[in-house]
Design brief:
With 298 residues, the protein is an alpha/beta fold. The protein is built from twelve helices and eight strands. The protein has one domain. It is 39% helix and 10% strand. The radius of gyration is 18 Å and the shape is globular.
Length: 298
């Protein structure tokens, strides 16, 4: 799948919200289509988004989709459940994910949920020297240096502060979205999407990758509307691709952090679309168990 062959790119800013109104408000998709203005959309639930992506993949097979939830968990946790690869582990998550999210969950390794003993406190198993167990290699791979960093060190590199998929509550938590996103991966794969790094890109088939918007935006206070506005203004001044964005798209990105992430992610994916043809299927057993983030060097 070369640069000239990719006809559409979709970047999804995901949400693990339990309610349909919350999903419709928080889930945003940036859509780049060759020869057409970039779109920025919301208003779909997870199920509706899934149907929409599958329909577009049939319409436009030369498509790449990026979503911002973890495609798996640390290799030791995958192995603990008697499987070796992430696609095998997806079945486990489909069966047990909501149990791990429940307030009464007996597995204290899932932490951060408000109103529980797990709120705001890293479990002892992950404290001090055991902290790295809470992360996949991909979660702490720093794009800027191309090497694995301690989470605290990574947090100091251009604002990149990866979160653990075990964290299901608190600022920036990715665990809830991950546990409610993983069960959809098998359906997307069955529908014909290649899912990297477990599958290699293939001519004529859509591709799905995991993205981390912070790697794509760089250092910016995304939660601050003025900072988003200034960031976009700078991009429009220095990048011709941003200068052609429709005004309504820019307005949406200024008003919403979720929309901002979706827009910057799709713009960066489009700018670097040659990269997708170079992706290879993983052979390393750890990466086959944990997955990888597009743009992060492991």
């Amino acid at each position: 799948m070369s640069n000239t062959q990719i006809q559409r790119i979709v970047a999804v800013d995901w949400s693990g919200d339990a309610t349909a109104p919350g999903q419709r408000r928080k889930i945003w998709a940036g859509v780049w289509t060759d020869g057409q203005p970039v779109r920025l959309e919301s208003g779909r639930t997870r199920a509706e988004l899934l149907d929409w992506l599958i329909a577009m993949s049939v319409e436009t097979p030369h498509m790449v989709v990026g979503v911002d939830f973890c495609f798996s968990y640390p290799a030791w946790f995958v192995a603990e459940h008697g499987v070796r690869t992430a696609p095998e582990f997806w079945t486990i998550v489909t069966q047990r994910g909501e149990q791990w999210l429940a307030h009464e969950c007996a597995d204290a390794r899932f932490w951060g949920r408000k109103g529980t003993l797990r709120s705001g406190k890293v479990p002892g198993e992950f404290a001090a020297a055991g902290r790295e167990r809470m992360f996949r290699l991909a979660d702490i791979a720093c794009k800027m240096r191309g090497k694995i960093l301690d989470p605290e060190e990574a947090a100091r590199v251009k604002g990149i502060a990866p979160k653990s998929p075990f964290q299901i509550g608190g600022a920036g938590a990715v665990g809830t979205g991950t546990l409610r996103g993983i069960p959809l991966l098998a359906r997307l794969r069955t529908a014909g999407l290649r899912i990297w790094p477990f599958d290699a890109p293939r001519q004529g088939q859509p591709l799905l990758v995991e993205i981390y918007p912070r790697l794509l935006t760089g250092e910016v206070s995304k939660g601050n509307a003025d900072a988003r506005k200034a960031y976009l203004a700078n991009k429009r001044k220095n990048d011709p691709a941003y200068a052609t964005l429709p005004r309504n798209v820019l307005v949406k990105a200024r008003r919403s952090e979720d929309a901002f992430d979706a827009l910057i992610s799709v713009m960066e994916m489009a700018a670097r679309r040659d990269d997708f043809s170079r992706l290879k299927q993983a052979t390393d057993p750890v990466i086959l168990a944990e997955g990888a983030v597009w743009g992060a060097k492991v």
